[in-house]
Amino acid sequence: MNTFIRNSVLGIAGLAFAGGVFAGPATAHATPSVESMPVAVAVQADKPDMGKLVPHGVQGAQSRIELSDEQVGNVKAIIAATKKAGMDERAAVVSIATALQESKLENLGHLGERNDHDSQGLFQQRPTSGWGTVEQITDPEYSTTAFLKALKQVDGWQDMPLTEAAQTVQVSAYPDHYAQWEQQAADLVAEHWNN
User: Fold this and answer.
1) 179-195: b or e for each residue (b if 16 or more CB lie within 10 Å)?
2) Measured between alpha carbons, how far is residue 152 from residues 46, 59, 110, 112, 129 in Å?
3) Phi-psi bin for 156: left (phi > 0), alpha (psi -120 to 50), beta?
4) How far apart are CA 92 and CA 193, in angstroms?
5) How does pLDDT run along the chain (195 residues), one tens digit per residue?
6) Residue 121: strand, helix, or coil
7) How far is Cα 71 from Cα 122, in angstroms, rounded to an integer?
8) Global pTM?
9) CA Rg, the chain, in Å?
10) What's the Cα-to-Cα distance from 37 to each of 26, 33, 42, rounded to whole Å?
């Protein structure tokens, strides 16, 4: 019996030794624990929620234009002015859609016969209507701030369809035209809000 127990113990020890030789020491070649491994984390900036940017869905057929560097710069200026005014992404969408309709995001000077009276800048604001001087309304930050100040005075603008909110501020001869730019404006805000 002693021989049987002794042989069993030696057999188990031999298996343990052989397992250690083939597998290697448990600590020498073990995979490092998760805590000791370097971690690469991809951080994606939060993009605004499209449901907040376009809460009513887009209305009607949508237009879209390719933007130059100058136009993208004006988008960024509108977003910066919106943030500075303490307003949210939806205000930026309304502002950008309005500027897309009024000037295609180009800071327009006086266009002579092609101008609506003395309308100028991104929002085609008029000095004779009290929007500011020519120098002021052709400054993207100033003109956006003036637009946003007027928008804030519209009761419930946040709950209005974009074209209604924009028209209440702009008093355009073509009040429904703002709606066609809502998707592109929302896409631009989503792309540039956190830049």
Assistant:
1) bbbbbbbbbbbbebbee
2) 26, 22, 27, 31, 18
3) left
4) 9
5) 454 444 444 444 444 444 444 444 444 444 444 444 444 444 445 666 777 888 778 888 999 999 999 999 999 999 999 999 999 999 999 999 999 999 999 998 766 555 556 788 999 998 888 999 999 999 999 999 999 999 999 999 999 999 999 999 999 888 889 999 999 999 999 999 998
6) strand
7) 10
8) 0.73
9) 32
10) 18, 7, 16
Distances (CA, A) of 29 to 35, 36, 169: 17, 14, 71
Say what the pLDDT of residue 110 is.
61
For residue 20, give every residue at least 6 positions away whose Cβ sits within 8 Å of its Cβ, in sequence order, or none.
Answer: 26
In DSSP notation, 63-93 reads: ------HHHHHHHHHHHHHHHHTT--HHHHH
Angle subtended by helix axes 69-84 and 89-103, to nearest 10: 140
Q: Are 90 and 49 in contact (CB under 8 A)?
A: no
Instruction: Go through 129-140 and write b for each residue having 16 or more CB atoms within 10 A of its CB, e for each that does not.
Output: eebbebebbbbb
**C-beta separation of 87 from 126 below 8 A:** no
Which residue in this structure is represented by tokens 């897309």?
100
> What are the C-alpha distances in Å from 103 to residues 21, 27, 111, 123?
78, 69, 11, 7
